[in-house]
Amino acid sequence: MRLDQFLSKALHISRKDAQLLLKKNKILVNKKKINKPATKLNPISDIVEFETREVKLPETKYFMLNKPVGYVCSSEDSSNKTVYDLFSQIDKYDLKIAGRLDVDTTGLVLMTENGKWLHNVISPNKKCAKKYLVGLEYSFDMKYVREFEMGLLLKNEIKKTKPAHIEVLSEKKLYITIHEGKYHQIKRMFASIGNKVNSLKRIQIGNIKLDENLNLGEYRRLTDLEIASFL
To answer: Are residues 166 and 188 in the same domain?
Structure first.
């Protein structure tokens, strides 16, 4: 790992600011002043010091968020708040979103700085199951359960959706589990049978379920077991 990259992660500063610290001879590596940003570093065996204190990489971060309506899954947006606004300055540093939700969709969002773990969540090749609670405008006709299981041909698409599983809770409320993530997919699936989605909440990704103790806008670290489910 490059020294400036290490400092950026360990001190939660930009790479540019890390290079400035090095230029000012503020950094010691194994008791020696180092000022070259590209210096190779072993973060396990090498000892890095800044202002007489040892600097270490933080523990890799994995979070689940209960996303509210009105927040976009993006780092920047000119019209809406982003999910990053719900995190503390330290926690949100270097986080990436593992599976986005529309601005009007609530529920489970996973976020991490581990690129490989993120890939295991979102890669189409992994066929990760995602479960949603759906509120409909009109009563759901049970005759469509089979069509969802066989795949639906959506508007402007040339291939049917992958099989989806429906669990009916009441006339206008149900669970749907899908294994892909087309644009506005669930809304378009129900629109294709003449219905309309009034509310949509993601409650599970793979084996990770939304923590019922999390209020809207709250987040927590994932447990070791939850993290391991995508390693």
So the answer is: yes
pTM: 0.79
Catalytic residue among 102, 104, 211, 224: 102
Whether residue 99 contacts residue 178, with contact meaning beta carbons closer than 8 Å, is answered with no
Which residue from 74, 71, 107, 81 is spatially nearest to 203, judged by alpha carbons? 107
User: Are 197 and 221 contained in the same domain?
Assistant: yes
DSSP strand pairing (27-29 vs 62-67): unpaired
Same domain, yes or no: 89 and 25: no
pLDDT digits (tens, 9 = 90+) for 18-53: 999 999 998 999 999 999 999 998 887 899 999 889
Whole-angstrom Cα distance, residue 46 to residue 58? 15
Both 46 and 68 in one domain: the answer is: no
Q: 196: which 2 tokens? A: 């309309």
| Residue 102 appears among annotated catalytic residues | yes
Half-sphere exposure of 4 (CA within 13 A, CB side): 15
Is 32 found in the same domain as 113?
no
Which structural domain, as residue segments, surrounds residue 220?
Answer: 62-228
**pLDDT 10s digits, 127-166:** 899 999 999 999 999 999 999 999 999 988 899 999 999 9
